Inverse folding.
């Protein structure tokens, strides 16, 4: 699993090749693009929600939602708050299985739990928007954005609970702002992008020395995460099969010294 024969130079060349192919619709690249870039996050949200006056006050990438003890935690790609207190979860979901409606429901419910403290009135719960940007047209109807809200099935009117789920069609190429945005989300070459905010931030990560160094660190971290999870799975299997303790399983799996603390933390 841990290949010392692969030189750092080889890994760097592989990372550079991978970086050239990354697009904003690749979640790791999108998180990098949105990191510390409120204007870009605000532009994306204004476009997708059709709220040209939306004022974003904060946006955090890889935001952990772990408030309920024992519940499955989630890490949001980007978590924003606007000037009126509304909350936004932006998720890149390239594979259809990652965009399952039950997952969208869970994200929405976790945002609710995160935003209501003990003693607060339920009416103080802010409006929430879970936005899934999918590479394919998840509902196959050709719409740029599918807006999902709870409905009173008797009256046919919206059930005004402040919960919104949006599925954005990554295949959409209409002659409008969403069409431009989805075009750019699928571009690996920044020079092909139409939106200046997205083009310039992509150029920073792909063409500048500082940006390339940051992205190579991200790719290295991703590689380590995959390797750590591989060791974790192997150790669990060894312990279950042979009834040994964790230390013995780690020895059997040949976990490198530099990864041991991370593997232990992930077990």
């Amino acid at each position: 699993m841990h290949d010392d024969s692969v030189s750092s130079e080889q890994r760097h060349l592989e990372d550079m090749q991978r970086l050239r192919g990354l697009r904003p619709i690749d979640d790791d690249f999108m998180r990098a693009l949105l990191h510390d870039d409120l204007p870009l996050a605000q532009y994306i949200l204004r476009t997708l929600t059709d709220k040209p006056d939306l004022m974003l006050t904060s946006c955090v990438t890889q935001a952990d939602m772990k408030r309920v003890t024992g519940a499955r935690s989630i890490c949001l790609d980007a978590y924003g708050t606007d000037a009126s207190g509304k909350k936004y979860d932006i998720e890149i979901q390239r594979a259809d299985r990652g965009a399952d409606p039950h997952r969208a429901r869970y994200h929405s419910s976790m945002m609710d739990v995160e935003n209501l403290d003990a003693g607060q009135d339920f009416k103080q719960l802010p409006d929430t928007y879970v936005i899934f940007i999918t590479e394919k047209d998840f509902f196959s109807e050709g719409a740029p954005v599918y807006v999902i809200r709870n409905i009173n099935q008797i009256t046919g009117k919206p059930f005004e609970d402040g919960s919104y789920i949006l599925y954005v069609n990554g295949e959409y190429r209409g002659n409008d702002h969403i069409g431009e945005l989805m075009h750019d989300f699928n571009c690996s070459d920044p020079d092909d992008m139409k939106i200046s905010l997205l083009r310039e931030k992509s150029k920073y990560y792909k063409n500048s020395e500082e940006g390339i160094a940051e992205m190579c660190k991200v790719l290295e971290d991703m590689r380590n995460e995959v390797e750590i999870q591989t060791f974790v799975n192997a150790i669990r299997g060894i312990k279950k099969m042979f009834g040994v303790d964790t230390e013995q399983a780690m020895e059997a799996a040949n976990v490198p010294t530099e990864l041991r603390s991370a593997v232990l933390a992930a077990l």
